[in-house]
Amino acid sequence: MKSDPAKKGSGGTLPVAVLGATGYAGVELLRILARHPKVKLTSVTSQQYAGKRVSDVYPSLAGKCDVVLETLEPEKAAAAAEIVFAALPHETSADAVASLLTRDKRVIDLSADFRLHDAKDYDRWYKGHKAPHLLKDAVYGLTELHRKEIAGARLIANPGCYPTGAILGVAPLFAKKLARNNIVVDAKSGTTGAGRSASVDLSFSEVNENFKAYNVGVHRHTPEMEQELSEVAGERVTVLFAPHLVPMNRGILSTIYVELKSAPADGELEKLYSEFYRGEPFVRLVPPGQLPQAKDVRGSNDIAIGLRYDARTSRLVVVTALDNLVKGAAGQAVENMNVMCGWPEDEALRELALVP
Amino acid sequence: MKSDPAKKGSGGTLPVAVLGATGYAGVELLRILARHPKVKLTSVTSQQYAGKRVSDVYPSLAGKCDVVLETLEPEKAAAAAEIVFAALPHETSADAVASLLTRDKRVIDLSADFRLHDAKDYDRWYKGHKAPHLLKDAVYGLTELHRKEIAGARLIANPGCYPTGAILGVAPLFAKKLARNNIVVDAKSGTTGAGRSASVDLSFSEVNENFKAYNVGVHRHTPEMEQELSEVAGERVTVLFAPHLVPMNRGILSTIYVELKSAPADGELEKLYSEFYRGEPFVRLVPPGQLPQAKDVRGSNDIAIGLRYDARTSRLVVVTALDNLVKGAAGQAVENMNVMCGWPEDEALRELALVP
Amino acid sequence: MKSDPAKKGSGGTLPVAVLGATGYAGVELLRILARHPKVKLTSVTSQQYAGKRVSDVYPSLAGKCDVVLETLEPEKAAAAAEIVFAALPHETSADAVASLLTRDKRVIDLSADFRLHDAKDYDRWYKGHKAPHLLKDAVYGLTELHRKEIAGARLIANPGCYPTGAILGVAPLFAKKLARNNIVVDAKSGTTGAGRSASVDLSFSEVNENFKAYNVGVHRHTPEMEQELSEVAGERVTVLFAPHLVPMNRGILSTIYVELKSAPADGELEKLYSEFYRGEPFVRLVPPGQLPQAKDVRGSNDIAIGLRYDARTSRLVVVTALDNLVKGAAGQAVENMNVMCGWPEDEALRELALVP
Amino acid sequence: MKSDPAKKGSGGTLPVAVLGATGYAGVELLRILARHPKVKLTSVTSQQYAGKRVSDVYPSLAGKCDVVLETLEPEKAAAAAEIVFAALPHETSADAVASLLTRDKRVIDLSADFRLHDAKDYDRWYKGHKAPHLLKDAVYGLTELHRKEIAGARLIANPGCYPTGAILGVAPLFAKKLARNNIVVDAKSGTTGAGRSASVDLSFSEVNENFKAYNVGVHRHTPEMEQELSEVAGERVTVLFAPHLVPMNRGILSTIYVELKSAPADGELEKLYSEFYRGEPFVRLVPPGQLPQAKDVRGSNDIAIGLRYDARTSRLVVVTALDNLVKGAAGQAVENMNVMCGWPEDEALRELALVP
Which of A26, A55, B275, D2 could anchor a disulfide with A21, C-beta 3.0 to 4.6 Å? Predict the structure, then answer.
C-alpha cells in the first residue's frame, strides 16, 4: 500500500498538499516540507487568504515558498497530490478527509477528528462525528507507539500536542505495569498551541506578564491520553489533565505525577526508559539528575524526557518537553509521512533546536 | 467656572462618570479613581459588557470596584456626574461629548476628537469631524503647557500617548528657539497603546519575540506633535514620526533627534530643561550621563527625560519615558481633573513605579 | 508589647529601618513604606551600594525615596528605628536579627532563618542555624493563620512566597480534615522570586521563550508548607513541591492537587472557604467556575483562590495566585507590621493590581 | 589560495575549528556547522567549560553535537583544522588569530579586532590593538560588498551585528551618491546581542517589560558603519548610532533616517535597490508599502529591507531586519566560509525563519 515516490511528481518527488496552510500548524508544515528533498508542494489551501501568496501572509516564506493559496476543494487537492496533510479545524476536517480517502489518497489529519477510536468518546468531548465509519481505518500517529500500523495506513490521526508529551512521558511505566492507573498531568504550553486567532484572551497585553490554568479537568486532550495509555497498560488509566498558558510562543513542558506500585531500584527507571526508546530518533532521555527545559527542543522534532523519583512522598515526577508545533504537530506529521513512504524517519527533521 | 467639590456627591465627594470603561485607558481610569479621595464613581459605561460588573471583566477590581456597567447614554452620565471622562473610540466620541457639554458638564475626552484645533487637520488625518463648533472650547490637556487654560476649561482634549512623550521632550528647545524646525521622533510603545482588541496582529504569538515599525510618517499622532510644538516655537515645526511596537505591555520610550542651531555650552541644556520644568510634579530630569528607561515610570504618572548631545554629528538626542496608560492617558486625565477642581495636582497620582 | 506609634518618630510616625533594601523584596518594601502614612524610613542598608542613594540604583524612586544607603550595622539600625525589616539572604540574617532583638527592637525577617520551628529541620534544608535559641520567639507571619500571635510578637518570620500560596490554598481543607495528607503543589513563579542576581541562568536570553521545572522535591520551601499544614491539620502532612520558572517578572500561580476523603457536596467547599476566610482583607475567593490568574493580583497584596473538583478522577484542584513580591514578601511584611502596631491591616496596601 | 575541500578531512570534508564555542555566536556556529555537509568539526574550545561536552552546556545539542570542549590553544586548533572560526571576546581575539595565521590557516574572526582598517580607529573605540600588522590582510566580511576579496582572503573580519543591518540598508544610496552624508541609525536589538553573560542588567527581571537606549552616540559599532559607508560613498559619511535593547532574544530592527539630495522619482529607489542586490541570496527587499519585522528572519540568514520616503519631511526611512546571531554573526561567518571555499554560498544556510 506504500506510495511509490519514484513514480510521482516531477524529478521523482512525491506531490503533497496542505489543507489549511495558514494556521500555525499549517505554516510549520510548509517550513518543514519546503526543505524536504523527496516531496513537492502542489496544492496549498487557506479559506481566509485564498488568492494570495502564502508569503503575503508569512513574509518569512518569501522567496522560499511563494505558492498561491487556494480555496479548500478536496477533489482538487486529491487530483494534485498523493499525500494530503489536513490542518483544518476540529469538527470540519472529517468531511474533507472522507472526500480524500474516497479518491484513494493517503491523509495525515492534524485535527482531532480521528484520534479517538470510539465515536461516543468523540461525541462526549467534541461534537457529533461526521465520518464515524472511517474511525476504524485511522491510525493514531504517535510514531513511537504505532510505527508499524502507520507504515501501512491510509489515514493518520496526528496526535494532539499535549497528549504527545504526556503519553510518551509515561508509556514505559504503564507498559511495565509499574504505575498506578491514576495520574496527574500538569502541562504548560506556549501560545501557538491555541492557534492563530483574533482573540482578546490571546492578545499580547493579556498573556504577557501573566500565567493561568484553563480547562482544568475538562480539556479535550484528556481522552486521547487515556485511550493511548489504557492501551499500553492493558487496563483503564485515568488522567487528571490541567493545562496552563505560558507567555512564550512555542513549547510544552509537562510535569507528570505518578504513583508507582513500589519504590524503584537505583537506575531501574532509567534503564526501563532507555530500553523502551532504544533507537528512537526523536526521543531524548536527559541525564539522571537533570530535567528538560522547553527551549532545549524549540524548533526541533525532539521530545526530551527527565525523571525524578521523590522518595519522601513516594511519587515519581516525569518531565517532558517538546515543541508543540513540531513534535506536537507538523514535525510529527512529516515523521509519519516519512514512515508511510519508507523514507528515513528524520528526513527534513534533522534541524537542531534554535537556542538561544 | 470651577466645580465646587464641596457641594456635590455624597460626603463631599464629586460625582464622576467614565464612558468606555473597559478599554485599557478606561480601566486604568477606574484603577486611579478608585483611590481618589475626592471623587465618587457614579456611572460607568461599556458597550460590550453592559449589565456585567466591571470586576467580571477585570477580576483585579473585584472587591474594590464592582460597579455595574451601563450602556452609553450621555444624558444618564450627565445626570449622574459633574465631570465625565470619555474613553471612547476616535470619531465616535464627539457626539457624546457634545451631548454632555450641552448639559453643562465638564468633560475630559481621551479620544483624539478635540486635540487638533483645526477641523481641516482632523479631516486630513482622521475622518470628518462631527462637532467642529466645539473645537474652540477644547483645551489641549498637556498639563505642563496649558495648566492655566485647563483650570477653567469645560472640555479637555487629553493628549495622545506618543505626543505626550514627544512634545514634553523637546518643548524647552523650541521655546528657546534652539532647535531647527524639523525633528525625528523614533518612538517605541508597549502593546496596550493599541487598545484592548481582538486582532491577530496583536496576539501574543505574533508580537512576542518580534519588533516592528508601523505607520512610519503617517501615524495620526503626528499632527498633534506638530500643532503643539509649532505653538511653542512660534513657527511651523515638522515632525517625522516613526512608531514601533515593543513586546511589553506598558511604556513608551521616545528617541528624538534634534538639530540644534548651534552647539550647546556645557550644562546649558540641563539648565534650560530644569528651569522650564521647575516645580512640575511629574516631570523628572534624569542626571546628566543617564537616560531614562521604560520601567522607571511603569505604573506611575511620571515622564522621565534624558539628554545626550553628540558633538561628532552635531545632533541632540532626547530620550523620554512614560507609561502610556498613565501619563499617556488615564493619569494625565486625572491630573487635568485635579487642576480643573483646584485639588492637589498629584491627588491619587502619587503611586511609585512598579519595579521590577 | 505593642509599639506606641504616637510616641515615636517625627510627627507621630514610627521610625522603621530596612536592612538589605536593594534586593527585590527590599525595594518593594521601600515602594510600599514610602506611601505608609504612619511610618518614617530612618535607616536603609545595602552592602553592595552603601554610600549611594537608593534612587541611583532604582531610578523609579527618584524624588520619592532618595535615602542614602548605609552599610549593615544592626546597632545603628536599632538606634534609628523601632521596627526593623530584615531583607537579608538566608543564613546571614540570623546574626543581624539576634543583635536587633538584644536591643529590644521588633523585627520582621523576610529571610527563611526563623520560619522553621525546629532547628533540625533548618539544618536539614539549609545550613547550621546561627541563633536557634530565638526560634521559640519567632512567629510564622502568615497573617491569616497567626494574626493573634503576630500582634504581640517581637520576631516575625515572614513566610516564603511559595508557601504563602500553597498554605492558604489548602488550609481550610486540612482544618476540616477533608483532605488526605499527601498533596502535590505544582507552582509556577516569575523571575523576581529568584532575587536580583547576576546569573546566566536568570538572564533574559535564557529565561525568555523558555519554561522549566527546578528543584523538584527538594526545594527549601517544602518544610515550611509541611510545618504549617501539619499544624493546621493536627497530623503530619507531606507535600511534593515542584516549582517552575515562568518568563514573567511577578506572580506565582500554584496548582495544588488534593485527594479528598470523600466527594464534596455541591457548594460545600465554597462555603468552607468562604467561612474560613470571612473578613480577611486580602483573600479573594473567585466565583465558582473561575480560576485566578497571575495578573489579577499583580502589584497588590491579594491572594486569589479558585477551586475545581474533578469528579472523574476524584481529585480537587486548588489554584492560587499572588504577587510574590507583595503578598509573597514585602506586602505581607507590612501587613504584619500593621497588625503588630494595631493599625488598619491594609494601611499602605490598598493598591489595586496593575492590569494590564 | 582557496582551500581544497577534496583533499582534507575524512570523507572529503574540510576540518574546521570553533574557538569560543559556548558564547551565543559560538553555539550558533555549531548549530549551523552541524548540518553543513562539507565540513567536519574537529576542534571546539571554551575556556569556561573545557573538559565538558558542549551538550552539557547546551542540552539542545545532545545527540547532534557532543564534542568535548578544549581549552584555547591556537596551535592545537591549527593542527586540527584548515579553517578556524574565532568567536572570542574583542581585544583577546587578535593574539589567537595571529598565531593561526602564522600556521597558515584561514581564519574567520567574529570579534571586532580586525574590522577597522586603521589601528588608530581601533585604539580610539576599543583598546590598543595587539596585531596591527595583520590589519592589511583582513577583509571586512560583509559578503554583499566584498565577495571577491573574501574568496581569496586568509583573514575575514566578520562584521558586527548592528553594522550589517545599517550598512546593507543604505549602501545602494551612497553608491549612487543620493544621500547626504549624515545619517541616523536608530537600531533595536534582542538580548543575545549582548552575549552570554552573568549580569544584573541583562537579567530577565530587568529586561522584561522594559525598553531602553544605551551607548547613544558612543557605541563601538559606529566606526564600522562609517568606514564601510564612506568607502561605498567615496567620501566621509558620519553616522549617529543609537542602539536600544528589546525584550526579545534574537533580532535587530534598524530604522535609518536619511536625507536625500533630491526627492526620488516614483519607483526609483526600489529599482536602485533591486539592481544593487540582484542575485544576492540573502537580501530580501520587501514589497513597496511594507516594512520588514524582526520575526520575518528569525533563525535565517536573511536580511530584509524596506523603504519609506516621507515627502512631508523630505526624508527617507530605511528599515532593515536580521537575526543578530545568524546574518549578524554565525550565519554570515559560514556564508564567508562558503565563499572562501567556492561552495554554494547558501550551503547550510537555507533554513527558513522559525515563525511563529
Answer: A26
